[in-house]
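Consider the record:
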Amino acid sequence: MLASRGSLFSLSYSNSLGSFIKHFQTSKLTPFKLKTFYRRHTTTSALLKTSHFETLSPRQKEQIHVYVDALLLWNQKMNLTAVREESEVMERHIEDSLAMIPPIRSSYLLKCGASCEEISLVDVGSGAGLPGLVLAIACPGWNVKLLESMNKRCNFLEHAIELTGLSNVQVVRGRAEDLGQNPDFREAFDVAVARAVAEMRVLAEYCLPLVRVGGLFVAAKGHDPQDEVQRAHRAIYLMGASLLQTLSVESHSPHGQRTAIICLKDYSTPRKYPRDPGTPAKLPL
């Protein structure tokens, strides 16, 4: 078992972890038998030759596999992903998450700083930890926060951090609208990312209040998001940002080309944003 040093930031303590853990017997979750594990993943690794995954170190590959095993196990009891097969998780989720790293690095070096080796990053609406937990594995110098509002998903994320032994990632339990008005989190991050959370108008209000002036908001989208991006120009501007660039993302996923929408935070977000929880989704700017 890899040692755990992760911790949990929580804005709500009303739900007990014990009420959820009773559905999982400890013997089912641990330990991972790495000898059997590597044999079982030979096919997946062969499929991912020349992929982003293959650029990782042996330890990082091991951490990814441990995470994927935990994801599929917990997915039997709760809705973490619609994907049920390990090979599809690797190709669809892991590859797509790793594919975000080059555009984040290149854009950060272009506009934000001389180095991107020790950036602070928040994954808004992290869900099952995609892409944030994968980014934390691939970029151990990054300080990553996984922002998630659902208690059961937070429990899974904390468990995954424990299994993988990550020390550079923490779970933040709460809503983006609340954290965006919290002095401890408002304009506190170099980069905010979001994948498969909401449309750009809504994401801008969720994410940009968390980004420092001079930082980046990066949204992972499909192959043709231009109409969505066009509708979001006003929301991006109202949050104090501008559209920096739209980059085609090199992904080995079988689901086609991906796009990284990258916004630069030009000035502080007005205090009235983000609006009350639920309002951005109901009444997009």
In short: Residues 1-49 have pLDDT under 50 and may be disordered.
